[in-house]
Amino acid sequence: MSLVHTRLLVLLALVVMLGSCKKEAPAPEDENELITTVRLKFTENGTTTAQTFTWKDLDGDGGTVPTISPISLRTSRTYKLEVEFLDESKTPAENKTSEILSEADEHLVVVTPSASSLFTYTATDKDSRNFPIGLTGTLVTGSASTGTLKVQLRHQPPVNGQPVKNGTVTPGSDDVNVTFPLTLAP
Length: 186
Hints:
Blueprint: H1 3-20, E1 37-44, E2 50-56, E3 67-68, E4 71-74, E5 78-87, E6 94-95, H2 97-102, E7 107-113, E8 119-123, E9 136-141, E10 145-155, E11 173-185
Parallel strand pairs: 4-11
Antiparallel strand pairs: 1-2, 1-5, 2-3, 5-6, 5-9, 7-10, 8-9, 10-11
């Protein structure tokens, strides 16, 4: 075999070997948080007494049904609402609220009623781009009725290095999406 043929075979072998090497998978997008517990703390304006209601699902989706505290609030009142997220699948439990706050430009807490007459919610905290975060806000109740209060934690990380959070629920995905029964009574 000539020197040229030998070199061509070596070159061909190198190309085949380099081409067959597996490329590393791209780094995954910023993954969703594991949330096992959602706490809602309501403090009526003019008072210092708070009521806390909890949604808890320690084994995650499937398995045991979550435990949910039914919310009972007074009609025609204004409440300060503070939302807290925990991962209690670990010991000790991990408070995710501070992580969400530190990544505020990538998270949005959305609080919605099953009927618009139940309440209005206005987030009072803002991220660095002046979009709502929703971990704290003002909730104004309507007249006597029943329904539900839904809490969503939207994870809205940048895409291709560009921010996508725009103050709406649309971009991103849910870290958690839970519903509490709600009663408004005088």
